[in-house]
Structures are given as C-alpha cells and as structure tokens.
C-alpha cells in the first residue's frame, strides 16, 4: 500500500493549470491538474495499483496522497492517456485516448459551463453566464460521494428530490478505487440511524441520533475539542447527516475502509501535518451488530461481555457459556399486558429502531402510558435527550443489538411481567452487598500491595507467562519465516565482548541488556532474555516478527533476534542517551533537558503511544510505561522501548483481564493495580504519571508508606493545582526556559490522564491533539486516582453510582489478583 502511494504521487507532473476553473473550451489531460483557489485540494488523474487512470480529488501537496473523491471508479481508462472535456449538454466527460467516454457527469442546462474546484474539496459545475446565485450548482461532486465524507457534505435522503447519498468503500483502500463491499448508509425507517454493511450484512449500527450524537457511538463526537460540529436532521423533507469544522485550519475526513476483509468507519484529523485516526467503528466486540442477540445486552467491560436483560435468560445456555451470545435471551415470565411494569435501564445503546413508532412531540410520560396501553409495545424511550428529554420512540417486538456504556448512553424503559420486576429489587440488594464487599476487598488489596512493595523490590514476572498471554491473543500464528532477520550467536558474542560486565547496560525482569558493536561498526543493544523463559521457539519467532513490523520514530527499533544454544536474544538499535530516568533524576545531567526538549519528549512519547494503541495494525498496550523505558537518542528524541510487557490485542479486543499483574507500582492505573484490568486507558494513566515526572523532575513513588510528611507526587501536584500554586513544583533546572502557559497545559493534560476512572481519561489521540493545539477546551480534572488511601475513599463514593463493573464475580477474582 505504501509503495502504491509513492508510485502515484511521483506520477504527477507540475500542474499546468494554475487557476481553479476549467472553461468550456479547455481540456484537462492526464498530466495536468486543477487546483482549488487556496490550493487545499487538487483535481487530477491518478493511477490505481492496476496502472489504470482515474479522475479524482485529493489534498494538495500532502504525502501520503489522500484521495477524497473518484469520478470513474468502476470504469477506469487504461494506461494510455485520456482527458476531461465538456460535452454539448452542459456536462463534462472523461474520454479515453480513442475519444470514447469512460464517465460523464449528469447533463445540465448550462450554456457556458464552468468547472471549479472549491477549497472544501467540492467540484462544482456552474454556468459562467449566470452570476446571480453563487451556491446554486448545476452539478457537484458532493452529491456523488465515494468513500470519503468531508465537512460540508450531506449524507442521507432528500425526499423532495428523491435522492440518497451514502459512502461505499474502495475495493481495497489505498489500492483499488473500484466500488468495494462496505457501505455506510442512513436508513430512514422508524427512527433514522446509520448502518455499516458488508454487501447486505449489517456489521455495525450507530444507533439513532439523540439530538447530540448517535446513541450507539458516543465517541463519534469529539469531547475534548469543539472543532467539529455534527448535525442530524429528519423530517418530511429528508434525513441528513453532516458536519463542519469551526476553524479553517482544521482538516477532517471520515472514510469507509476495506482492507484484508475488514471494513471500518474511520475519522481522521490533521494534527501537525499527519493524519491522526480519531475514532473508528466497530471498535470493541460490543460494536458488532447483534453480538448478544435479542434482549441481550453487551458490556465491553463485562466478562463475559453478554448478559441478558433483567427478567430474561439465555436462549441457548450452552452457546452462552462458550461466549456466543448471538442467539440472545428469552423472557422468564410471559407478559400479561394489564399488570406489566417497566424496568428503567440507564446508559444504553438503544435497540435497533427500524420497526418503531415515533412521535417527536410527545413527552416521556405520554410515551409510557401509550406503551403500557398497547400490549405489543415492548419498550420506550425519548427520541431526544436534550432539555431533559423529549419525544417518544416505542418498540414492538424484539429488542435487538443493545449495549451499555459506562456513562454516556440513554435511558430505556423495558416492559416486564410484574413478577420479574419484583425480583429486580432483590437483585439490587445483592448488588449493594457486592459493592460493600468490593470496597472492603479493595482496602485489603491496597494494604497487600503496599506491603508487598515494601517487602521486596518489585520484580517483574517471568517472560514465559507474558508470552503465553500474547499468544492467547491469537495474533497471526503462521507468518512467513523469511521476514525475520536472525543474528548469529557468535556475532553477538563478539559484538558484546563475550557479554562482558563492562558492556552491560542494565538488567530488567526479562534479562540483561548489553551494548555491542557489529563488525561493520553499527552499535546495537542486545537483550539476553532470562533463561527460565519456557516459551517455544515458534511463539518467540512469531512475537519478534510482529514487533519488528512496528515502526515509528518514537519506538525503539527491533533489528532482529537470535535463537541458539538455549538462548533467546533480541537485538535493538542502540540509543546513545539511554533511559530518560538516567538524565531526569541525575542532578548533574538534568539541566540538559530544557523545557523545549522536555516538551518534545512528552509529545514524542504521546505519538509513539498513539501509534501502539491505534495506528499500528495491532492494538498494543504497553503495560509497563515508565521513564526508564523511554530511551533517548543522540538528539534527545524519545523512543519507547521494551514491548516485552505489551499484550498484543486482537483488533476487536479492547480490554482484557489478566490474573497476573505486571508493571511497576507508581505508574499503574488503579483498576490495573487492583483488578488486573488493563486497557489502553491504563497506559494513558502511566503516561500521565510520566508527564508530571518530566515536568517536576521528581519520581512518583506509588504508595507513600514510610510515614514521612512528604506526599506522593501526584497527590502533591493535585493539592497545588487546586490552590493555583502548581508552578512551585516545576523542576528548577528548567526555570528559565519555559512558557508558563505551555507547562500549565501539560500539567493539566497529565492530571486528565491520571483520573481515577478509566473513562474519564482521554485517549492518546485526544492527548496528542491537546498537546499540539494552542487553545483547546479541556475539561477540568477531577480528583486523580493517585494511590492507597485516597483511592479507597473515592471508590466508596462511586459505589452509589451503581457501576456495573463491581460485580460479585469480580470481587472474587480480585482476591486472587492481589497476591
Ligand atoms: C502533456 O501530455 C501531452 C500529450 O499527451 C503533451 O503534448 C504535453 O506537452 C504534456 N504536458 C506537460 C506539461 O507535460
Ligand atoms: C483563502 O485564503 C484567504 C487567506 O487565507 C482567506 O481570506 C479566504 O477566505 C480563503 N478562501 C477560501 C475560499 O477558503
Ligand atoms: C500499459 O499496460 C500494458 C499492459 O498492462 C503494458 O504492456 C504497457 O507497457 C503499459 N503502457 C504504459 C505506457 O504504461
Ligand atoms: C476506449 O473505450 C472504448 C469503449 O469503452 C474501447 O472500446 C476502446 O478500446 C478504448 N480505447 C483505448 C485506447 O483504450
Ligand atoms: C447522474 O449521473 C449518475 C452517474 O454519474 C447517475 O447514476 C444518475 O442516475 C444521474 N442522475 C440523473 C438525475 O440523471
Ligand atoms: C459481496 O458482493 C461481491 C459482489 O457481489 C462479492 O464478490 C463478494 O464476495 C461479496 N462479499 C461477501 C463477503 O459476501
Ligand atoms: C442542526 O441543524 C438544525 C437546522 O439547521 C438547527 O436548528 C440545529 O440547531 C442544529 N443542531 C446542532 C446541534 O447544531
Ligand atoms: C454462534 O452461534 C450461532 C448460532 O447458534 C452460529 O451461527 C455462530 O456461528 C456462532 N458464532 C461463533 C463465533 O461461534
Ligand atoms: C393478568 O393478570 C391478572 C391479575 O393477576 C389476571 O387476572 C389475568 O388473568 C392475567 N391475564 C393474562 C392474559 O394472563
Ligand atoms: C404526537 O403526539 C401528540 C401529543 O400526544 C399528538 O397531538 C399528535 O397527534 C401525535 N402525532 C402523531 C403523528 O401521532
Ligand atoms: C400498538 O402499536 C403498534 C405500533 O404503533 C400499532 O401498529 C398497533 O396497532 C398498536 N396496537 C394497539 C392495540 O393499539
């Protein structure tokens, strides 16, 4: 795919048309382009990987080329030249070298047609003799979207004109522009919502629009910055979905991709010159359509993820036990109609709304009584959550494809037999006991953690267990052996001077690291894995192949490995300035890191982490981020090292529980330290700790256990942040190199990253945006989850929130976890 980009970008010859219009007498050849007025977009010909020509629009001067529109996607002109010209019916045509049309725009009434490429990326056809109405285009490319949804475009149905617009993926994104299998289309039946389909099969459903966002895709709306504005309208004239950017310097595109039989809806934003993936669906298993079947509710934090709605039981208990919830649930007690009651569920993704009754002017009470009177009504909810909730949507029949969100779902009222509602009370009581028990166990767990930490030096777990974990992820098992660079044992022995003590750079839980120099002069770092690793050769090779594919300027590069004589070694590029901790905490060296460098380090770590979390093909969670795992090159550029702990995730696995807790106290997120629950958000927590350490030059010490008055670093920062005296904590060695606003912003971001609840922490893409943006609106941090005593009281108060994750089952597991 990358090769392809280079191929097509190198193909364009300097634009020979400098204006932004093409008039009736002009033609555009394959070696020419048309620029938009402010040179944001360009119209021209590009070649697909099949070497055929396509007419398309892409961002000007931007590498890799990001094509937003293709005219003749299913009818390319062959590799000889073609051209674009006007026809005699107010249309414009794409002709091949023998003058036969490969594509045509619709005919118009224009006498003097004129093509213009706008800075929005919209190619419009106007009549040059008609200067009256500037925005009344006779034809526009925005009416014929391909796979890209741009600000200013409208997707959906126009009932007045009888038109419909949707997105269709490329056959292979980045390679073959012809119409692919994936579509994103809005359905107007019932309460409108959008579906991502592969051919006719629904993969993902956004849920209906609730006035603010799609009910089933809260992440589709940016929460950290208000630079994008979304809107969805539906009435008798049509159903439209569109968005806009509030700053002209902001670029955003949403595409439907198709790559290796995976189709996704993805939103990118341009951040400091590169496209950052901000959001995509389907993301978690719960996002897949019908994951838990009729009346099943999917909870991505649950284990298993599917549960039955209260008053229902699994239809197929056997499949359910095997984590296959697709057959869903059945009612425990049949409905009676006159005596039925309604169960109030909060934070839901509403069930599918294709077959519903909607009245936008009813209140919730009217809705409820209408539903109660109609025996076939199974549930109801508001259509709009704004202004305390308005409108009425009523389901008849099965409730399908529901999920629960931690905080930003909707209220749903589900019809149940009165006897089932009754038993719900007991359920609540049990829950309450569970929560109290949970709090108790947390306290015990914390005591145990602090005790263990005091007792012995924290020791990382064996390599083998980690590798087993990685392999349970089921990531590509049979990759080709050829791509793995192998080093000879003797070569490495020689390079490291027989693994001499002088060459030793350090020692970690996974083995020792040696500095080495190959005969040709290249410096390397060799990690000799501890011998007790019982992992098989094949698994080891597979892991290495996977890590080798991760390449980013903020990640330490793995060059290869060596497997010989019962030994396993990893060979990395050598980093001149070693670990960040070796400079940051060294009184004689810390001055080398002025504020600019520190900011650069923070930003670099964020980029590297974003890559691991989101941009690489695999979702990787580092799990042991700390300053000693950030290496610095000769120019003090940060590189994240030691993916040893990383648990490699399947694409659709978002949070996993582990019975073994690896990591370093002081950097561990509360839910990880206590429950062994880790997710990308636990890395965000560790990142936040590092940011605060980098700014203050002080080490966070986890539990402040030695009865000194010196507070834990995070707690200390939080206190000063509250009092407005946080600048007192800045490392004195940067005192003359910083801009106060920048430092405060970084502390602010650091505090957001160490929030107690994982859902309150931003994702790395938001962090990158916050770091790079001059004046984003950032939410105010709440009390962070620092450690021990504070955490405990915070959890107490959260028990009233009825957080579903504190179930009795997990409490049991917690006891095991804490040892
Ligand atoms: C574009 O191609 C045409 C013939 O196909 C040629 O005559 C013309 O010189 C080329 N223009 C440029 C700028 O290369
Ligand atoms: C083009 O750029 C100029 C200067 O930045 C700006 O004033 C103008 O509004 C832009 N025009 C369009 C169509 O974006
Ligand atoms: C066009 O494609 C044909 C077959 O794919 C190839 O033989 C020919 O060399 C190509 N011509 C050019 C100008 O690329
Ligand atoms: C141009 O298109 C016509 C009709 O599609 C086709 O028959 C012809 O072979 C094409 N000419 C070239 C040179 O590709
Ligand atoms: C406009 O052209 C497209 C193909 O470019 C075609 O599918 C569509 O039916 C045409 N619409 C009208 C109104 O002719
Ligand atoms: C989708 O439809 C296309 C064209 O009919 C077919 O080639 C492809 O195999 C289908 N894909 C799936 C997953 O059914
Ligand atoms: C959406 O558009 C409608 C009609 O233009 C407008 O009344 C409404 O305020 C907009 N909503 C948002 C959230 O911008
Ligand atoms: C789950 O069960 C359904 C029917 O019971 C079956 O069609 C489907 O293939 C199963 N899914 C998996 C992943 O086993
Ligand atoms: C519903 O419940 C009432 C009261 O228990 C009972 O009298 C009635 O027969 C029930 N109706 C049905 C259809 O079961
Ligand atoms: C919607 O509900 C309102 C208030 O109950 C009622 O006046 C109106 O007729 C209803 N509209 C439709 C289309 O049923
Ligand atoms: C119940 O509501 C459905 C959906 O609006 C409607 O089709 C049906 O006629 C209603 N039944 C009764 C008895 O009102």
UniProtKB/TrEMBL annotation:
Residue ranges occupied by any Protein kinase domain in the UniProt entry: 499-778
Q: Which residues form the Apple domain?
A: 337-417
Where in this protein does the record put region Disordered? Answer: 775-803
Source organism superkingdom: Eukaryota
Q: Which reaction does it catalyse?
A: L-seryl-[protein] + ATP = O-phospho-L-seryl-[protein] + ADP + H(+); L-threonyl-[protein] + ATP = O-phospho-L-threonyl-[protein] + ADP + H(+)
Keyword Cell membrane present in the record's keywords: the answer is yes
Q: Name one Pfam family in it.
A: PAN_2
Q: What is its main location?
A: membrane
* Signal sequence residues: 1-19
In short, the EC number is 2.7.11.1
Location in the cell reads: Cell membrane
Q: Which membrane topology term applies here? A: Single-pass type I membrane protein
Specify the protein name: Receptor-like serine/threonine-protein kinase
Native source species: Stylosanthes scabra
Q: What is the lineage of its organism?
A: Eukaryota, Viridiplantae, Streptophyta, Embryophyta, Tracheophyta
């Amino acid at each position: 795919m990358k090769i392809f980009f280079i191929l097509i970008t190198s193909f364009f010859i300097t634009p020979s048309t400098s204006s932004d219009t093409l008039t009736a007498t002009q033609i555009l050849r394959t070696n020419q382009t048309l620029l938009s007025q402010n040179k944001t977009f360009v119209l021209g010909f590009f070649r697909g990987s099949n070497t055929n020509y396509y007419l398309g629009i892409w961002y000007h001067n931007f590498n890799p080329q990001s094509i937003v529109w293709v005219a003749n996607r299913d009818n390319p002109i062959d590799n000889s030249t073609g051209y674009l010209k006007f026809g005699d019916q107010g249309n414009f045509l794409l002709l091949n070298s023998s003058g036969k049309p490969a594509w045509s725009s619709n005919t118009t009434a224009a006498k003097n047609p004129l093509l213009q490429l706008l800075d929005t990326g919209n190619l419009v056809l106007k009549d040059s003799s008609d200067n009256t109405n500037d925005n009344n285009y006779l034809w526009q490319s925005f009416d014929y979207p391909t796979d890209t949804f741009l600000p200013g475009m409208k997707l959906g149905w126009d009932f007045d004109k009888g038109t419909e617009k949707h997105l269709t993926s490329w056959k292979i994104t980045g390679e073959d522009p012809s119409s692919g299998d994936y579509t994103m289309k809005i359905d107007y039946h019932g309460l409108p919502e959008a579906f991502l389909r592969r051919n006719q099969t629904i993969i993902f459903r956004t849920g209906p629009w609730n006035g603010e966002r799609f009910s089933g895709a809260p992440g589709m709306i940016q929460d950290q910055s208000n630079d994008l504005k979304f809107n969805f309208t539906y009435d008798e004239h049509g159903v439209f979905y569109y968005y806009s950017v509030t700053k002209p310097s902001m670029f955003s595109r949403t595409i439907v991709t198709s790559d290796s039989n995976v189709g996704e809806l993805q939103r990118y934003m341009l951040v400091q010159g590169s496209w950052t993936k901000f959001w995509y669906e389907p993301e978690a298993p719960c996002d897949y359509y019908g994951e838990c079947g009729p009346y099943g509710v999917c909870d991505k934090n649950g284990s298993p993820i599917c549960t039955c709605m209260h008053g229902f039981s699994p239809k197929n208990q056997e499949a359910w036990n095997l984590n296959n919830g697709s057959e869903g649930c059945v009612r425990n007690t049949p409905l009676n109609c006159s005596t039925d009651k309604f169960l109030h569920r909060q934070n839901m993704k509403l069930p599918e709304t294709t077959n519903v009754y909607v009245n936008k002017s009813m209140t919730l009470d009217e809705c409820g009584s209408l539903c109660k009177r109609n025996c076939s009504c199974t549930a109801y909810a508001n259509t709009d959550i704004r202004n305390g909730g308005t409108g009425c949507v009523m389901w008849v029949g099965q409730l399908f494809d529901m999920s629960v969100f931690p905080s930003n779902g909707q209220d749903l009222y589900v019809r149940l037999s009165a006897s089932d509602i009754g038993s719900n009370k007991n359920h609540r009581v049990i829950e309450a006991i569970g929560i109290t028990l949970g709090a108790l166990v947390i306290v015990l767990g914390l005591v145990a953690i602090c005790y263990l930490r005091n007792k012995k030096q924290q020791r990382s777990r064996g390599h083998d267990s980690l590798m087993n974990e990685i392999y349970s992820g089921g990531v590509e098992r049979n990759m080709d052996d050829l791509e793995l660079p192998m080093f000879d044992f003797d070569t490495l022995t020689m390079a490291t001077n027989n693994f001499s003590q002088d060459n030793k750079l350090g020692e970690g839980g996974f083995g020792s690291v040696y500095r080495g120099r190959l005969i040709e002069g290249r410096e390397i770092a060799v990690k000799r894995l501890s011998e007790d690793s019982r992992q098989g050769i094949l698994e080891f090779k597979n892991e290495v192949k996977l890590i080798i594919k991760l390449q980013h300027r903020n990640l330490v590069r793995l060059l290869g490995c060596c497997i010989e004589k019962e030994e396993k070694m990893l060979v990395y590029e050598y980093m001149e300035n070693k670990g960040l901790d070796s400079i940051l905490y060294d009184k004689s060296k810390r001055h080398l890191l002025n504020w600019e460098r520190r900011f650069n380090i923070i930003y670099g770590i964020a980029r590297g982490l974003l890559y691991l979390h989101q941009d690489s093909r695999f979702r990787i969670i580092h799990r042991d981020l700390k300053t000693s795992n950030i290496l610095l090159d000769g120019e003090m550029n940060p590189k994240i090292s030691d993916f040893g702990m990383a648990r490699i995730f399947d694409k659709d696995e978002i949070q996993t529980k582990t019975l073994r807790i690896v990591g370093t106290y002081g950097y561990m997120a509360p839910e990880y330290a206590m429950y062994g629950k880790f997710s990308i958000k636990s890395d965000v927590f560790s990142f936040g700790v590092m940011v605060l350490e980098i700014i203050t030059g002080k080490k966070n010490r986890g539990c402040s256990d030695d009865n000194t008055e010196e507070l834990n670093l995070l707690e200390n920062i939080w206190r000063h942040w509250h009092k407005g005296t946080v600048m007192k904590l800045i490392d004195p060695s940067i005192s003359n190199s910083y801009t106060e606003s920048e430092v405060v912003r970084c502390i602010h971001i650091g505090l957001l990253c160490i929030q107690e609840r994982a859902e309150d922490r931003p994702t790395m893409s938001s962090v990158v945006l916050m770091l790079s943006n001059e004046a984003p609106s950032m939410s105010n941090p709440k009390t962070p989850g620092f450690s021990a005593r504070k955490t405990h009281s915070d959890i107490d108060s959260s028990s009233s929130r009825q957080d579903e994750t504190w179930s009795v089952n997990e409490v049991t597991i917690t006891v095991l976890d804490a040892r």
